[in-house]
């Protein structure tokens, strides 16, 4: 029994020891685990401390960055209460931050600008606010900011001080407005000066032209021609200055309309021909047949450039002549026009300078040629405005070639062009001492299939004539009477078409030339359509009679047509000299003028004539008149016509103002056409010829 107790005690002691060991082992393991957890917590605490430090550093740097930008930042909750304001906002408000937080303080607004909402939801607007240091312009950008996952939001506004920029913009705007006002004032001034200068100039030029029609001694004729030349020069200078002023004011508007290119170029050449022929120079044009019949562009401005370049070419050329050649450009719908002369040429160092304002190739005090130096500058501006470019190739003593290329699209409408004849196999001899027009005529004939030969004098022509059969002979009148007669004598029985190329002022010699054997004539500069008409006729004996041209077979001149019609014309003109000029010009053209000195008198005279059953055929209405001006007078006439019915009277505006705006104003007032002073007989006769011809018919 005793053994059993001892054994039990021994077993209990062992169990207790084992339990104690187990407890000790657990406590040891637990202690190690707690120490490991403590070390991890300490490391985590250190990491969080580092992260907190980094966040604070980032926050400080962001705060410093925002403050350094100088932008005004304020944040408000949904009730408009300030939850944050930076130093810039506090400074702008003139209050401490703690005095702003929790309040609905708003900066006092002096002026509110328009608001704009961007696609990302940002709202922008400008405000002029009353700051502590005076009014300031702030450009605000407001955006909604989400605070937490629950969806709380605030509105953060960032403002930038744009006072300097706004003031600069307003100063620029005011300067622009002042410049526009100055430009308008300058335009009004130029229009007034143009009118005031043109009005007496109209009298000077018109009366001088009438004086030249009277019986004068040779000395008086010389003096009168000098007066007219000086007046024409003054008018040209006025036109250049006005055009340049329009360009400088940005008022160079283009009017793109369909027009026949060949007609425009040939008319420009014909307009300059008298000036060239007075210097014994040739002038001719060639338009490549690959170009369209009609193109779209500003015909008026293109004519101005052509007249300027060709006029300069004549001015600086003493021998030879001027050629105008139009060909297709390298790109579709491009036209290249070249004006080539045989003049004095331009030095290399002057070729860039001549396109500047008031510059000339010879600008020294001993210069030979006058002028304002604006023509080429204006031409370059016009060409560039048309989307083109202009260049010059020249050398002293070798002439000059001005070329410009502009886009001129083909017009939809066509027709009116002559039919090019088929001259294949025909032989044409051209006898001409000058090479310019002869070479262009030969180029034209070659395009039509003819074989041409250019001969410089009569002796060579007489020697070459027997070498082959010639279908036509073109003889330049500049060859001289004796040489022409010798060539005609040699060709009378050899060539059935014998055509002389003659200047308009030499038409009085046609009867003698016809007697010498000429079968027809062409007026220089030769038009392509006229050349085609003369050579298209067959050359057989039966056709030779049909090809014969009588000396008087021209179209009747405007003066002759007007004389046949005898229009009754009312002239409204307040200037006594211009009224006298209009009366004499119209009387010489065969019309019956009646003068009215005011717009009211013109309307009364028109009404009286209509009531009496003898209405005026036409009214020449001066735009600027006292009391009732020409525009109001035209409106009253149109109103009376609308009320009473009857035939519409044609009204032609007479004005010294030549701008497009003036033209549009006259047409809007009911006028039918527009004549710019100073008047000359040719332009006046041309303006009246259509009406006179209609009445005669």
Give a verbal description of the structure.
The chain is elongated and about 180 Å long. With 697 residues, the chain is α/β, with parallel strands linked by helices. The model is unreliable at 363-368 and 538-564 (pLDDT under 50). The termini are far apart. The longest helix has 68 residues, at 2-69. The strands form 5 sheets. A 6-stranded antiparallel sheet has the order 2-1-6-5-4-3. Strands 8-10-11-13-12 form a 5-stranded mixed sheet, with helices on both faces. Strands 16-15-17-18-19 form a 5-stranded parallel sheet, with helices on both faces.
- The overall strand count is 24
Helix content: 40-55%
Oligomer: single chain
Helical stretch count?
20
Features:
six-stranded antiparallel beta sheet; 697 residues; alpha/beta
Brief account:
With 697 residues, the protein is an alpha/beta fold. It has 20 helices and 24 strands.
Topology summary:
Elements: H1 2-69, E1 72-76, E2 82-85, H2 87-93, H3 97-100, E3 109-117, E4 123-131, E5 134-146, E6 153-161, H4 163-212, H5 218-248, E7 257-260, H6 261-278, E8 282-287, E9 294-297, H7 299-315, E10 321-328, E11 334-341, H8 375-385, E12 389-394, E13 400-407, E14 409-410, E15 427-431, H9 436-447, E16 451-455, H10 458-464, E17 472-476, H11 481-491, E18 497-502, H12 510-516, E19 520-523, H13 528-536, H14 541-547, H15 558-565, E20 568-572, H16 576-588, E21 592-596, H17 599-611, E22 618-622, H18 630-644, E23 650-655, H19 660-668, E24 673-676, H20 681-696
Parallel strand pairs: 8-10, 15-16, 15-17, 17-18, 18-19, 20-21, 20-22, 22-23, 23-24
Antiparallel strand pairs: 1-2, 1-6, 3-4, 4-5, 5-6, 7-9, 9-14, 10-11, 11-13, 12-13
Helix pairs in contact: 4-5, 4-16, 5-8, 6-7, 7-8, 10-11, 15-20, 17-18
